[in-house]
Write a structure and sequence with these properties.
By secondary structure, this protein is α/β, with parallel strands linked by helices. The chain has 14 helices and 12 strands. The chain has a 7-stranded mixed sheet, with helices on both faces. A 5-stranded mixed sheet has the order 10-9-8-11-12, sandwiched between helices. Bound molecules: 5'-O-[(R)-(carboxyoxy)(hydroxy)phosphoryl]adenosine (KG4) and zinc ion. The site of 5'-O-[(R)-(carboxyoxy)(hydroxy)phosphoryl]adenosine (KG4) has 19 residues, from α7 and α8.
């Protein structure tokens, strides 16, 4: 099954084409084409993502990225084509709020053959609604213009499924690793921090969640306090690494006060998290420091990462014991964090060698369209795509993980 996928939930515009096969038992996904445009620099001067700007950028970039992806997949066929009047009318309606996108797509349709694609998958939530709508409307237009089913896909499901896919050496083929249920997923991203248990495919039970900030959000806010440029997470992480590298100097330095941050809710008898107190503790610590030297910054960054790592590891250990976990997977942008990856690799190797453990490939850690195609394929093994009426689908900023509604054959 050849899937075109689209991701526009935040500030990454991404399009990919995957050839998926094997069902749930032998799921492989060959990446035929992939194009991703990160808007980070556009938002940097505002210190965070501006939804209306993200929407405008998605509108401008989706068609060029589609063209690039199809070209890479060798599916781009130039030809003069006409659009049926009823289809043209529908497209005008669907893209009435995305003027740039409408013009670009109509002109694309008039100059290219329909590519050999079986379905279009698109993120419909969670995320920034204006941004989600742009990708969703584009997918609707594609579905109508090329008469292919649309598979509305949950962004977080994308993070879970893609984290289980391992890239085969020297190929563009991802293969799903062995999974034994119950599976525990730790989702750590800019908008989410939660633990989810699956007893079978597409059956989600959220067992723990953050009571305030998401981990990625805390990373970004603390980075800002330290005067680091947006996007904060990666910059804070780099600074912490630097701190570790020259630890003998940073920590022995007489003018560097010691920094000890709390580990919020680490011992609470549940699977919930809280990160806003940690962020506030950094704020109070910095208030007492007259001179925010590079040494101090490195020390705070390192201690912050360690506090987050301690809490995540403790809560995962608790969840593993409580839920009889057989497979553990981490997904979401913060899973790109080196320190957190190492902490979990150590934990799983020493404490739980019998549990199957998956971290996402680096390119699948932060937002991308590949993960959307993968999750769409997996879901399509259980739910008939044709049952979805594209025109009925709405963008849902706060979308939760959804269990199967109507399974095939039921
Ligand atoms: O999954 P993602 O790309 O987007 C959302 O769905 O939110 O996650 C983005 C989050 C941001 O908060 C970003 O700062 C954080 O992931 N992040 C990191 C790192 N790379 C991305 N946080 C810590 N260390 C990193 N290396
Ligand atoms: Zn994400």
């Amino acid at each position: 099954m050849r899937i075109l996928s689209i991701e526009t939930s935040c500030d990454e515009t991404a399009v990919s084409v995957l050839d998926c096969n094997g069902g749930t038992a032998n799921f492989t996904a060959e990446l035929l084409g992939n194009a991703l445009y990160s808007q980070t620099e556009k938002h940097a001067k505002f210190g965070g993502v501006v939804p209306s700007l993200a929407k405008r950028e998605h509108s401008m970039n989706l068609v060029p990225l589609l063209e690039r992806t199809l070209h890479e997949a060798q599916l781009l066929l130039v030809a003069e084509r006409s659009i049926a009047p009823d289809v043209e009318e529908l497209l005008r309606g669907i893209l009435s709020r995305e003027h740039t996108l409408h013009e670009a797509f109509v002109s694309f349709l008039k100059t290219h053959e329909k590519p050999e694609i079986d379905a279009v998958a698109v993120t419909y939530g969670p995320g920034l609604e204006p941004a989600l709508w742009t990708g969703l409307n584009f997918a609707k237009a594609i579905s109508i213009a090329w008469h292919i089913p649309m598979i509305p896909t949950n962004h977080m499901e994308g993070h879970i499924v893609s984290s289980l896919m391992k890239k085969q050496k020297d190929t563009n083929i991802y293969e799903m690793g062995a999974v034994t249920f119950p599976l525990l997923a730790l989702l750590i991203s800019g908008g989410h921090t939660e633990m989810v248990v699956m007893k079978k495919w597409i059956d989600f039970k959220v067992v723990g969640t953050t009571r305030d900030d998401a981990v990625g959000e805390a990373f970004d806010k603390v980075a800002r306090m330290l005067g680091l440029p947006y996007p904060g997470g990666i910059n804070l992480s780099n600074l912490a690494e630097e701190g570790r590298r020259i630890a003998h100097r940073t920590f022995a330095h007489p003018e560097t006060p010691s920094c000890e941050l709390p580990r919020p809710m680490i011992n609470s008898p549940n699977l919930d998290f809280s990160f806003s107190g940690l962020k506030t503790a950094v704020l109070y610590f910095l208030k007492e420091i007259p001179d925010l030297t590079d040494y101090v910054k490195m020390k705070v960054a390192r201690e912050f990462e360690e506090a987050v790592g301690d809490v995540l590891v403790a809560k995962v250990a608790r969840a593993i014991a409580q839920e009889n976990v057989k497979t553990f997977v981490i997904g979401g942008g913060v899973s790109a964090n080196k320190h957190i990856r190492i902490r979990f690799e150590d934990l799983m190797k020493t404490e739980y060698p019998d549990i199957k453990f998956y971290l996402p490939e680096q390119e699948l850690s932060t937002d991308n369209a590949i993960m959307i195609g993968m999750a769409a394929y997996l879901r399509s093994q259980f739910e008939a795509n044709e049952l979805v009426d594209p025109m009925e689908v709405r963008a849902e900023g706060n979308l939760r993980l959804q269990n199967l509604k109507l399974a095939i054959g039921e």
